[in-house]
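[recover] target loaded
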């Protein structure tokens, strides 16, 4: 028999060949790199991620417009289409492999104290590397964008039609209802498999007083079997959803492996005119006759803006970038969802998703033919919960905690991928996690939905190939509210394990003291705070670095039309424009931003 690693590779290749054997008539056939790059286009879109792919599709609907979509990476991978294997993409060549600055209050148990920040470097961007969870956030998030942050036109009633427009929901009880779409480009649905652990999560949540409901619908507070961006058991990235069906449009050119260096702005007129990028060792300057749309994400978009002379004037001058085209707070207001990774609960039944159980011909055949088996699980996540801590408004449908429930733990893959993605030091791994090898477990990843801590993105240098400085300042809010709410989330997870639904399978907390926290009184708030700050992990929900709001606000980079203040013919459309992070995962809201941005652009030019 082949060793486990080689057998996994062989099985992945078989799955990929069966699911993605490209033919000329296939509506999901691969996107081909453009063979010709023209000197000018009507629109140039930088970044083919969750928003950029949507915008490229919608703008190229206008037959008279020529559109160039630039992507720094290549096409998405075949192995990345298998939902359960999502973690394997992190730290690969398909990941930008960003790391934060060492944190004072987080990632203390991670190598060098630098949190891993996975970001997709391929068509589809992070929608091609994420865990595919389809979560819209809370109604009040968007009403607050409008009422608190001055983003006119971005209230819940304004953005709901754009969520629905994209969606092709596969659940017959949801599709075509007030809150869900049918027939859109983006396939949304449940995984083709639920374990007894997933069912226990729902039952346990109900025991604790939370309703089992569609948390993307009328109310958010509750528990649910998650929906994800999957199609027939495989990943449905924005590349698959929005680019592949229109890849043969004559007016849409898609250029991969194209590293954007800067946006060229006329210093006299302050008009964005060209995009400079490098491809295959050759330098290009391509003109946009109408607009340039920056959709490179919350890290790369501010980096490109600053390299182009748009950002804090003192910082740009310090880095030797001249002239300063617009003195704007680019890179500030950075915030993110972060929580504790690696809590483990043992059980007595063989219900966990362990990799040795996956390597079998029946499971692979079932998955390739029917999209079922644990391989269709959304990165292993089987349950979502939106609950309230004691700090939340108990009268409002505005939960402040989100739970990701998974039917396994950090050791479930024998330490082949998760240990590296999560970044624990060898000392912590060997002492705490190695004893869990081959044991049935489950885990919850809890986090605070509306963090108050704020950080920043800055340039390391004026070299566009130099990764930026990333400092999220996790758990730095003066009131210590972020850590307090996260501690309450941990307590909920412990209470959930004691419900009848979990006790039936002998569920119990793996109570080995966490390394580095043994000097703290066990199971106290002080102990949990130590563990949270040691085992911190990002959900990659970073937002805010090109903040949207009224032009009179000096903390704002783009107006509610997504136009960069003081610069003509330049917009930003991605997570960076969000003034405050939505109460949930950010992939679906970013696609919504892409849909709305497309209409904003069309309204100006048609």
């Amino acid at each position: 028999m082949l060793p486990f690693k080689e057998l996994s590779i062989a099985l992945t290749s078989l799955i990929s060949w069966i699911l993605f054997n490209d033919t000329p008539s296939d509506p999901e056939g691969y996107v081909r790199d453009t063979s010709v790059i023209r000197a000018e286009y009507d629109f140039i879109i930088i970044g083919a991620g969750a928003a950029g792919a949507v915008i490229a599709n919608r703008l190229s609907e206008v037959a008279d417009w020529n559109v160039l979509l630039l992507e720094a990476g290549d096409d998405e991978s075949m192995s990345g289409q298998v939902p359960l294997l999502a973690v394997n993409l992190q730290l690969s060549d398909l990941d930008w492999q960003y790391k934060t600055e060492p944190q004072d209050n987080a990632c203390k148990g991670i190598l060098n104290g630098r949190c891993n920040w996975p970001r997709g470097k391929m068509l589809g961007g992070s929608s091609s590397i994420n865990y595919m969870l389809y979560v819209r956030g809370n109604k009040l998030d968007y009403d607050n964008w409008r009422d608190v942050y001055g983003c006119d036109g971005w209230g819940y009633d304004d953005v709901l039609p754009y969520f629905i427009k994209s969606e092709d929901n596969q659940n017959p009880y949801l599709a075509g209802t007030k809150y869900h779409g049918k027939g859109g480009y983006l396939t949304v649905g449940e995984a083709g498999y639920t374990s007894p652990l997933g069912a226990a999560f729902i039952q346990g949540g109900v025991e604790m007083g939370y309703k089992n409901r569609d948390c993307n619908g009328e109310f958010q507070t509750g528990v649910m079997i998650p929906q994800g961006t999957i199609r027939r058991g495989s990943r449905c990235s924005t590349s698959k959803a929005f680019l592949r069906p229109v890849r043969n449009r004559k007016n849409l050119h898609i250029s991969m492996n194209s590293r954007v260096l800067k946006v060229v702005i006329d210093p006299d007129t302050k008009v964005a005119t060209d995009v400079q990028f490098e491809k295959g060792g050759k330098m290009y300057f391509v003109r946009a006759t109408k607009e340039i749309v920056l959709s490179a994400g919350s890290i790369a978009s501010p980096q490109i803006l600053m390299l182009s002379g748009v950002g804090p004037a003192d910082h740009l001058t310090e880095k030797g970038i001249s002239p300063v085209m617009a003195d704007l707070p680019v890179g500030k207001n950075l915030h993110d969802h972060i929580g504790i990774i690696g809590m483990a609960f043992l059980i007595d039944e063989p219900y966990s998703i362990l990799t040795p159980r996956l390597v079998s011909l029946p499971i692979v055949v079932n998955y390739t033919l029917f999209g079922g088996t644990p391989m269709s699980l959304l990165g292993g996540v089987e349950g979502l919960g939106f609950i309230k801590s004691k700090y939340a408004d108990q009268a409002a449908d505005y939960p402040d905690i989100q739970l990701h429930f998974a039917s396994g733990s950090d050791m479930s893959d024998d330490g082949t991928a998760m240990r590296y993605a999560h970044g624990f030091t060898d000392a912590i791994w060997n002492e705490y996690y190695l004893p869990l090898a081959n044991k049935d477990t489950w885990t919850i990843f809890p986090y605070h939905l509306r963090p108050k801590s704020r950080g920043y993105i800055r340039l390391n240098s004026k070299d566009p190939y130099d990764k930026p400085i990333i400092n999220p300042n996790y758990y730095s809010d003066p009131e210590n509210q972020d850590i307090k709410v996260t501690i309450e989330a941990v307590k909920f997870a412990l209470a959930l394990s004691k419900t009848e639904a979990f006790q039936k399978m002998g569920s119990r907390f793996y109570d080995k003291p966490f390394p580095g926290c043994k000097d703290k009184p066990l199971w106290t708030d002080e102990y949990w705070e130590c563990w949270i700050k040691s085992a911190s992990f990002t959900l990659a929900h970073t937002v805010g670095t090109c903040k949207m709001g009224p032009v009179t606000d000096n903390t704002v980079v783009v107006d509610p039309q997504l136009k960069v203040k003081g610069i003509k013919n330049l917009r930003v459309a991605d997570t960076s424009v969000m003034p405050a992070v939505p109460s949930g995962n950010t992939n679906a809201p970013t696609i919504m931003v892409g849909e709305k941005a497309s209409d904003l652009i069309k309204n100006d030019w048609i």
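[recover] notes: The chain has a mean pLDDT of 94.
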